[in-house]
Amino acid sequence: MVTTYCPETLSEALEIREKESTMIFAGGTDLMVKYKSTSGALPQFPKDILYIGNLQELKEISITGEWIKIGSMVKLSTLLEERRLPDYIKIPVKGIGSPSIRNLGTMGGNICNASPAGDTLPMLYALDVAIELSSAKGTRKVGIQDFIKGPGKTDIKPNEIMTGIFIKRTEFNRWGYRKVGARKANAISKLSVFCTAQIDQSSVRDIRISFGSVGPTVIRNREIEKEIVQIGVARLKQELGGILEAYADMLSPISDVRSTKDYRKDVSLNILKEIIEGDLIL
């Protein structure tokens, strides 16, 4: 028999998390599928459920100084409606599921699911976000590249709740994102590529490139990004072949029911070329 806890405040939720062995439940768009039973039967959850989808403390978006904080229970649809957020944060969210899924799913859930195909993850890796984890004993922050350990594996401890996502405000003037799925909407990603940059007429001041669904976690290489910055705009197209070769050595996709590893690798590199030539170099 599974017990469901429905705390009214974050502090109450943290106390329950400290004392009980629980599974965190918010929108349930991933968990309901993962633990579904035969038609008409209730899902078979392996632990007691801690429902935190109603905690108002986790539903806020705040911008102070150089930081944007997105509460872990902010719904994906709410994020899209927030006018203060830049478009490059919103673009990957638009391709998640359907409107009904985005009205239930949360930013924190998309991260904690830790799927290699997670739609927001390439964007979050590129933006160097920090994940806020809270317990009854205190709060800590960890970079997303350290938080996600592998498919379905994270650094969250049994007594912790993910409470927020911190994004440093950066002035990017170019960005591009492509997701390839079996159809345009409501599809799991076969692969995805996210790029954002600060580029003027002669120089690349900053560039971030990340790939989803071509490795156990999101792939991003800061050394290649530094090389692109040094190359500059004038030589970028000339050196693009070498850049693609460098990334080709890093991509390690798998073959599964949705796609083959060769397809994922080839299309990812073709998309990166398309984004650099079409979205970043105008």
Mind explaining what this structure looks like?
This protein is an alpha+beta fold and 282 residues long. The chain folds into two domains: 4-168, Uridine Diphospho-n-acetylenolpyruvylglucosamine Reductase, domain 3 (2-Layer Sandwich); 174-280, Enolase-like, domain 1 (2-Layer Sandwich), CATH 3.30.390. It is 33% helix and 24% strand. It has helices at residues 10-19, 31-34, 76-81, 87-94, 99-104, 107-112, 121-126, 144-147, 222-236, 240-248, 261-280; strands at 4-5, 22-25, 48-51, 61-64, 67-71, 130-135, 138-143, 148-150, 153-154, 161-168, 174-180, 191-199, 204-212. The strands form four sheets. Strands 4-5-10-6-7 form a five-stranded antiparallel sheet. Strands 1-3-2 form a three-stranded parallel sheet, covered by helices on one side. It has a three-stranded antiparallel sheet with strand order 11-12-13, sandwiched between helices. α2 (31-34) links the parallel β2 (22-25) and β3. The mean pLDDT is 93.
What is this structure's SSE topology?
Blueprint: E1 4-5, H1 10-19, E2 22-25, H2 31-34, E3 48-51, E4 61-64, E5 67-71, H3 76-81, H4 87-94, H5 99-104, H6 107-112, H7 121-126, E6 130-135, E7 138-143, H8 144-147, E8 148-150, E9 153-154, E10 161-168, E11 174-180, E12 191-199, E13 204-212, H9 222-236, H10 240-248, H11 261-280
Parallel strand pairs: 1-3, 2-3
Antiparallel strand pairs: 4-5, 5-10, 6-7, 6-10, 8-9, 11-12, 12-13
Helix pairs in contact: 9-10, 10-11
